[in-house]
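Continued from yesterday's entry.
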Amino acid sequence: MTEKPLTGGCQCGAVRFRAASLGRPSICHCRMCQKATGSFFGPYATAHGVVWTRGETKRFQSSNVAARGFCGECGTPLTYEYGGGLELTIGSFDDPTVAAPAIQTNPTDKLAFFDTLHELPVLPASKTAELNRLVVSNQHPDHDTDAWPPAN
């Protein structure tokens, strides 16, 4: 059985990466991760042997011990960097299933509604499909490309 490649990148394709292996994937509920990702939590996987295959991240020193890497073109959050290593955002992998979260951290900042999100109503698949037919994506595909954006 072939292992899935550990590749990914930003939404616009200006920054791409490959990792040799992953450590523990997690979701962090701290307020800094919420703000850095614009989400309810920060989803990260410890990564080893990361090679930037296209472009590189810009960085913001979010605290005295950590920096956040992101694409300078489209703003996609890509890394959490600290003295102990580098973590990649799970959603930036071409196949995010390679890094299913194994633990939640910093629960004191967890948003009160987080544990009840699964109870929210779900838009029917037929309505979602109808809306998606109107979308023309400019997003980089979920695989490496020789060049991006494609020539017209």
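--- second protein ---
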Amino acid sequence: MISAAKRTRRTRSPPDPSMLDTYAARGGECAYGNLKMIARVVSAVYEDALRPVDLRAPQLSLMWAILATEPVSLSRLGRVSLTDQTTLSRTVENLRRAGFVTVSAGTDGRRKMVALSAEGRARFARAMPHWENAQRRIERYLAVPEMTALAGRVRKSARAAF
């Protein structure tokens, strides 16, 4: 007896070459591809700008979220930053080892609370002029206010979905 998967494989016709040509021409419309390309360019600009203060762009971004919400539980920080638990834990641990954040037990003992340390606040402050330079460079490529508005809509929708 032939399984349904094997029957499907045998009867499936090869893709129509003209259809592939049509899709090949539409590659520039792909939201994923465009966002990944933009992310690579933006990441490179911020990474380059933050190098003098020995911070990575994701670290600064997370420090910013901590500063805005501290003291903050790891679970709330994940929701605020829309960061998955594995990435969040790894980045917070790297920041803790660098002396930029403190991690303590919450009032119920089950939650971990995160706050910027004095060194973290100082490093964040030293990073801000470099961040400002990166922002100006990015504005040559992107309409930052429009991108900020788009990010706000995505953030709102993503929080509702998760």
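DSSP finds eight helices and three strands in the chain. The chain has a mean pLDDT of 87. Will compare against the first tomorrow.
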